[in-house]
Amino acid sequence: MGPPASYSRLDAAAFQKRIDSITGKRDERSLIKLAWAPDELRWYPHRMTEDPIGYTLPIFVYGNDANGEKVAAPRWVLLERLEPEQYASTWEMGRYSVYDGTVWDWKGPCPPERYIELRAHSYHDGECCPCRGDACQCGEQYAHCWGKYLDPNERLLDWIRKVAYEARNDTDVQPTRDIRYFSAPQAQRDAVAAQEQRADRQVADVDDFTRQMAEFWAKKPVSTSGLRRTAGGLYLLN
Description:
Blueprint lengths: L8 H15 L1 E2 L2 E2 L1 E5 L4 E3 L2 E2 L7 E4 L2 E4 L5 E3 L3 E7 L1 H4 L8 E4 L2 E4 L8 E7 L3 E2 L6 E2 L20 H15 L17 H34 L7 E3 L5 E3 L1
Antiparallel strand pairs: 1-2, 3-9, 4-6, 5-11, 7-8, 9-12, 10-11, 13-14, 15-16
Helix pairs in contact: 1-3
């Protein structure tokens, strides 16, 4: 699905230049990127027993189509660039875990660059949900309300100016600092704690998976051919 006739990709390219003039760029790449949501895809999680299907899952999932496939919201969106120092060193920590009895690859190989969700551009008029204005604040029941379609406009640029100003004046924002070595600022400590919690959960999942498999094979050895069982219950080579 392409963007509507009211706002073409050429219009989006011109708007991106205005964004870059506010936020600046790093390594010739935009720090905040305007995108048409259906164009933005991420790794589709898969069981390790199955072949990966790659980057085919919409980042901004709206729902399912008639065939049950995930589809993106037809909205203009903003994505924020993460520097490799913010994710590369800890990428493998949260990549794999056990779910429904099998090991899953949730994130795929570590990408050379990464953009994450920042904002979906729309408006709420009290019909799509009880809210009115730029943002939905209805709570969990309306967590996935995408509002009504809106072309990128000056209000969106004003929001970007506010975010860019806050980032430039926040001493906790250090995008090129390795997340493993964050120091005193509370925001950095929170980020490290979140990463460590994800790593602990993964270790717990792997330990649980290992325990389950050990118990299974203890009850059902692969083969006892060529083995003898001792009085203590151990299987040894003949």
